[in-house]
Write a structure and sequence with these properties.
2 copies of one chain form a homodimer. Chain A is built from 9 helices and no strands. The first copy, chain A, is mainly α. Chain B binds a DNA duplex through α1 and α3.
DNA sequence: AATTTGTTTAACAATTCTGTTAATGGCAGA
DNA sequence: TCTGCCATTAACAGAATTGTTAAACAAATT
């Protein structure tokens, strides 16, 4: 059975190397030989396992999207129902930021490589809508009741989601750059932004 | 004098085509033959005028950065001194968004292609610091006095700038995607975000 | 008109990168 | 032990892309 483990190791090694290469350099900037080298295999092996660069790329997209969706649903599931609406939004937002920060190139990769392509986008929309559909209706209800109960200052669901995603994605994307400009570590910058994002959202939701 | 005009036209045509190609596809995704084709010249001409793809790319960076810096300084200069601090921030923010929206691929291009490269980043930092240095000190003073006069809820300059840039950049980057998801036009989405960003910043600055 | 200068073209050279193939080696089951 | 299958390698083929060159050409200058 050592073969199967070996096979998985080679496949896994290539996938890991490919993820790093594609995320940091984009599809056209990525080199299959560089991926093979990083994975410690000959580049013929890469073609043997994944046939083409495109197919390998699709595999990466699949897992990346899956992880992204999981991060959202997980963060949402972990919620404490006893918390106020405001506290729950902040909790989800922070959990989501933690995930994104672990792969800081992810947002710009998504915006640059995935979303502009209509095909990739359709693919994602399908996956996301099936996975996030129920979450979306739940959110809608929760938000509506919060709006109706006058717990919060009125806001639409798209704008609330957009606020959260926007702030988190921008924090991740700009962290490398901004920390360089401000002469602080990336971690310090992210901590500052986390605090600031929380202030922004809380004030936004307060009446 | 027709020659000089012709020369400028060819150069300009190549630069325009290159800007479009580089911004939408990134450096490695861009093809010099595609640029030449778009510009309506043979691809040998491209090399005649700019020698290499790299040099052409640098030219694009230069103008893009210049325009970006100009947009900020112009927006800042146009300010009405009689306005409150809050109103001035909002005015600058909106002016800046209008510029970015005109080139929606710009932010992701900057984040993907320019900022990650240490060389490009240094180049920009130099240009920006000489152009934005005095603006920065002005801003610092204005913000300090606003903080001291307790006009606004206390905030640091880096976080205020980060808030504004972050919200604007994210609005531009996500506009194409978000409008598709929400089944509205890009313009409608941008208008919604503009309103929402203004609400966010105003509430943030209110005590 | 001849010369010079700078522009343009077409063909080609060189490189880089992706993808293929034929040969090799090891291992499991007959 | 032999056979067949799978993984692996090295060398190669093909395509795409960047960059060069030599020759033609046009316009201005002498």
């Amino acid at each position: 059975m050592a073969e199967k483990e070996d096979k998985m190791n080679v496949e896994k090694a290539i996938l890991d190397a490919a993820t790093e290469e594609f995320l940091s350099k984009g599809f056209s900037g990525a080199r299959t030989v560089a991926i093979a080298e990083k994975a410690g295999v000959t580049h013929a092996m890469l073609h043997y396992y994944f046939r083409t660069k495109e197919k390998l790329f699709e595999c990466i997209i699949d897992t990346v999207i899956k992880e992204l969706i999981d991060s959202v649903t997980e963060a949402y599931k972990r919620q404490d129902a006893s918390l106020s609406f405001e506290d729950r939004v902040v909790a989800v937002m922070n959990a989501h930021l933690d995930f994104i920060i672990a792969k800081p190139q992810l947002p710009s990769f998504l915006f640059m490589e995935i979303f502009p392509s209509t095909e990739n986008f359709k693919l994602i929309k399908e996956k996301a809508s099936s996975a996030l559909g129920s979450l979306n209706t739940q959110l809608k209800e929760t938000l509506e009741s919060a709006n109706n109960n006058e717990e919060i200052d009125n806001i639409s669901l798209p704008m609330l989601i957009s606020d959260v995603v926007t702030l988190n994605a921008a924090t991740a994307i700009s962290s490398q750059l901004a920390s360089k400009i401000l002469n602080i570590t990336k971690e310090e910058y992210v901590a500052m932004r986390k605090q600031e994002n929380e202030i922004l959202i809380r004030k936004r939701l307060k009446k």
